[in-house]
Amino acid sequence: MNLKILIIDDDEVVVFIQKKLLAKNEISNNPMVFKSVSPALDFIASEDGNKEFLILLDINMPGMNGWDFLEELSKKPDKDRFHVIMVTSSVEQRDKEKASKYSMVREFLEKPITNECCKKMKDIPEISHFFVKV
Amino acid sequence: MFKENEELKILVIEDNYGDFVLIQEYLTDEYSKFKIKRAENFENARKLLEDNRDYSAILLDLSLPDVDRPEKLVKEVLGLANSSAVIVLTGYADKDFGMKTLSWGVSDYLLKDEITSSILTKSIQYSRERKRVKRELEESEKKYRNLFDASPLPMWVLDRNSLEFLNVNNAAMELYGYSRQEFLKLNIRELWAEGETLGEETWKKNKNDFFSLQLKHRTKKGKILYVDIETNPITFDGRDARVTLASDITGKVKAEKDLYHSQQRFKALVQDGSDVISIIDENFRYSYISPSVKNILDVNPKQMEGRNVFEFIHPDDEIRIKKYLKFVGKKKTVQLPSYRYKDGKGKWRWLETIISDLRDDPAIDGLVANSRDITQFIYQEKELRESLERYDTVAKATSDLIVDYNIESDELKFNEAISEIFGYSAENTEFNGSWWDSKIHPDDFGRIKAQEREMVERKRKLMHSEYRLACADGSYKYVLDRSYLLTDNSGNPKRIIGSIQDITDRYNYIKAIEDSNERLREIAWTQSHVVRAPLARIMGLIDLLKNHRENIENVTEILDNILISSRELDKVIRKIANKTEK
Fold first, then answer.
1. Mind listing the UniProt keywords for this protein, alphabetically (chain A) (predicted)?
2. B566 inside 8 A of chain A by CB
3. CA distance B148 to B227
């Protein structure tokens, strides 16, 4: 599969829950996990230019936060390759509005994510073709 | 025998020698001494007369060989004779002709046959006498004519009936601008100015008498003259005429009119003017008071003359006025301060007086006082002062800065708040529009100037604005400016009155609240994330247990995680509780 799944979150419990659910919903059995933004950006930079990414992104993190990550991504010329799901512990309207200004953001979810959330992810038009059952 | 002072000189024009000798004989009988010459024809006579004209008499015989017509002869000789008397000698047959010659200017005629010594002598004597009288008459006439022509006063002679000009002198020509020829074609009526009827009336009533009158005349150029006319009936060249003397009194009439106007003006000033003019003697008694006092103070001027001025002045003002009166005599004019004066109805009026010392002027011989009723003015001033005092009190009572800006003079005035609130010396003389501009915070300046322009240009009465204003120490105060535009009667902007309130404390307070609100919002946001993070974990873990239990290898690990997250949540909530308690 040419779709790489990334989880960027500093909370281990959250990562644990998300990995379980992604596996259960047949999205990924082995997503890449990053506890902070910088290593994730480095990884993306090292990857093949053809690859597309589904990224579950937390906002509040020490050091660079989720917004900084989005800022960096939007500088890339081929930013259509990045499909970002914002995942936050508390949904605030102004955060949602801010997120909608970035074209890569496909969804805005409140923790904890559930099965429903996973189904929604698979239905996102830009990436749904990756999940078509044979 | 005649005794002659001057020597007798006789010319005899006679072709007959005998007759000549005869005449010479007769003359010798009567005169002791005389000269005699003879011309035997006209040609000789003419030569002699042209050489010498001072003959006492010329005796002319009418029958001469070289002149065939006696009439022509007589006239030629008369022409040459000048002042000499011409006596014609004729025969009896020509007696009638001889008489006729008298009308041509011959002095006498004698019949040759009747001549004797005494007749000849008498004739010569009478002729000479007549000639002399005629000459004197002519000279006298000439003298009078000269007097008429050379008179500096305009004179003319009119036909007594038609009033046409018969003669006119140089002065008249000069005054009226007509030449002699022009005058002689005119009628006196053409000199009378338009509307002047007196000339016609007077002339008709006094046709043959002397009369005099004053008339308006018009010159050739149309200038109007006032003239005094004196005119007498005379006979002129055999016609009924009148001689007229005209004196130009235009200047005098004008001077009289000016004097009259000047008197009228003076009368208007003194009688109907708004000032009372009085003359006061050294003991401060009225010797004259202008009639205008009747209108102004309701007093009859006659009742005031002789009375002391202090009878009328308010007792409370007397000392003050007397102080000023001490300066009279030291200064030419003294202005008295306003004082109260009792009018005709016993009411007090406010007067203002200027005293001029004219004791040296014999026409005045006293002090001239010009007084003006200023009662109305005093009351208005009092009202204005009270109104100003009220304004001052209000300005002092308020803690606002009151600004009074005169747009035209660029003058800026403040109440005491300028020093109390903003620290500027109230005596600063640099207060003006640009000073004020320099005190507005640069960031507010553009906005405030635009508002001010709108106020003046669009005549907006009221303006509210908030901005920062610099204090003397350079710090800024936040002010609320409520300005009001004053206009004149035509609506032109004149002044801006502003009430400027120091709202720095209020502004700072509001800003502090806003800052605190902002901080609180941030705290709430952070807290909600901090609180919800462990809760979200617990919810996620429970979801796993409930929905995916069959796929979970290590349930204990999940339960441990739930416990850890619950404790974390507990800790966070306790922390919040503690913070809010503080």
1. Phosphoprotein
2. no
3. 18
